[in-house]
Design a protein that fits this description.
This is Protein kinase domain-containing protein. The chain has a domain of 219 residues: Transferase(Phosphotransferase), domain 1. It contains 15 helices and 18 strands. Helix 7 runs antiparallel to helix 9. The longest helix has 18 residues. The N terminus is likely disordered.
Length: 463
């Protein structure tokens, strides 16, 4: 039996060999445990993650689906049950007590956020308790929540339903459109949100360019001002890929190929010369299911190549090396994120899950080795992560106070094992690994492009 002991001595069990780890001890065992195939089960992973400090969860956006709340307060989950905890809304997957997570805020670049969940008549809602965020916005976060409590209908058209999520921008709420008699998702921004204007402009441009809805981009149905706040009306889609993995476990290679091809088609469209847009925050949470298709959402951080490029706020797990090192960036950063997502879909585990940006770089180096010298020479942030050794002038990792990281000591093949021994699966796995090794390349000029990826043998013979 694997037993994960809590401080209150309650335990969780599942059928495998006996390993007993404490709430603190599991932090040291995490790197070892994550390699076990049995831990990819969503049921087991959710138990393991609950014992790991959520700093290791890193930038799962608002971490809105990281740990499911149990259906009762018994403190136990029946590992033999085939039923998953009921999820009534996005926020219902948070712990019932406040906890600390690590994520990066575009406003203050802080890694420390506190979140708590409170019960409301419309469902469970997530409240961000970042003090600097609240002070700078005159408690607008709480004002917005209060507005949602007092109003059943907004803009004389949309009936408020359950909240679907929250972030630094405001809220996303499920609504019923009385005029069109259909369900929609409305993104309600805080007061005076410049990001709303930018996202509206970006989405209108993209939706007009993709007027046939062929390239897997979320559709903006409209927008309006309500109580001084910008509101964006979207088509209502299903769960995102992170939720899908949490509920169903890792995907097969065939499923990974199917979803991956659609994501790559979207990236190919975005990288067209006449479009030239970098998403800048591609991750499983921003890829939503729509029947058998996926759609990419959240263009609030997107950049138009050719205009003045602002600081990129990629989520850390999916952050490209050139962004970490402070180098100029383009659409190749989305391809790096895409490679990380492909691996996560197949394994069920984030590929590079750094505690902070320094640890993120270390985890990449552990697999890919030291970045090329010409990139390190040009990076404005290189000295944060590397130093030159004399007299060779070669770069080495800076000591971090954590465990010593040796470059290229973890193989992609050990991280991404083959699940099946059939000839067809071996062939597909070989093509998959070939694609991954051509995406996860330090130099963005040498990284495979979306068009090249679509022509790769991994995406042949889509079922």
């Amino acid at each position: 039996m694997i037993k994960f002991h809590k401080s209150d001595d309650s335990s969780y069990e599942s059928s495998t060999s006996e390993i007993v780890v404490g709430q603190i001890g599991i932090l040291n065992e995490w790197e070892h445990l994550e390699n076990f195939k049995q831990l990819r089960s969503p049921r087991i992973m959710s138990l393991v993650k609950e014992f790991v400090e959520l700093d290791t969860a890193d930038d799962y956006g608002t971490l809105s689906y990281f740990c499911c709340i149990r259906n009762d307060d018994s403190g136990a989950i029946d590992s033999s049950s085939q039923e998953l905890p009921e999820i009534t809304a996005v926020a219902s997957c948070f712990r019932k007590t406040p906890f600390k997570v690590a994520c990066r805020s575009p406003e203050n670049n802080s890694d420390d956020f506190d979140y708590s969940v409170e019960e409301h008549s419309a469902g469970k809602r997530l409240i961000g308790n970042n003090s600097s965020d609240i002070e700078s916005d005159d408690n607008d976060y709480y004002d917005l929540e209060s507005l949602l409590e007092r109003n059943d209908i907004i803009h004389e058209r949309y009936e408020l339903g359950v909240p679907l999520g929250t972030g630094s921008y405001g809220w996303v709420v499920k609504c019923f459109d009385r005029q069109e008699q259909t369900q929609v998702a409305i993104k309600i921004f805080k007061l005076s949100s410049r990001e709303a204007e930018e996202e509206i402009g970006m989405l209108e441009f993209l939706n007009n360019a993709d007027y046939k809805d062929e390239y897997h981009l979320v559709r903006l149905k409209g927008h309006f001002l309500w109580q001084g706040r910008s509101c964006l009306v979207f088509e209502l889609l299903s769960m995102n890929l992170f939720e899908y993995i949490e509920q169903n476990g890792s995907l097969t290679l065939e499923e990974t190929k199917k979803f991956g091809h659609q994501i790559c088609e979207a990236l190919m469209f975005l990288s067209k010369p006449e479009i030239n847009i970098v998403h800048c925050d591609l991750k499983p949470e921003n890829i939503l299911l729509c029947n058998s298709r996926v759609k990419i959402a959240d263009f609030g951080s997107s950049q138009k190549i050719g205009r003045e490029m602002s600081q990129c706020n990629q989520t850390r797990f999916y952050r490209a090396p050139e962004v970490i090192l402070g180098l100029p960036y383009d659409s190749a950063i989305d391809m790096w994120s895409f490679g990380c997502i492909l691996v996560e879909l197949y394994t069920g585990i984030p590929l590079f899950a750094g505690h902070d940006e320094e640890d993120q770089m270390n985890k990449i180096v552990e697999v890919l080795g030291i970045p090329p010298q010409h990139l390190l020479d040009q990076g404005t942030s290189t000295e944060i992560f590397f130093h030159k050794m004399m007299p060779s002038e070669r770069y080495a990792l800076n000591p971090t106070g954590r465990e010593c990281i040796m470059p290229e000591t973890r193989s992609l093949y050990s991280i991404i094992p083959l699940d099946s021994k059939s000839d067809s699966d071996v062939h597909l796995y070989s093509a998959f690994m070939h694609l991954i090794t051509h995406i996860l390349v330090y130099d963005p000029k040498e990284r495979i492009s979306p068009q090249e990826a679509l022509n790769h043998k991994f995406f042949e013979f889509l079922s």
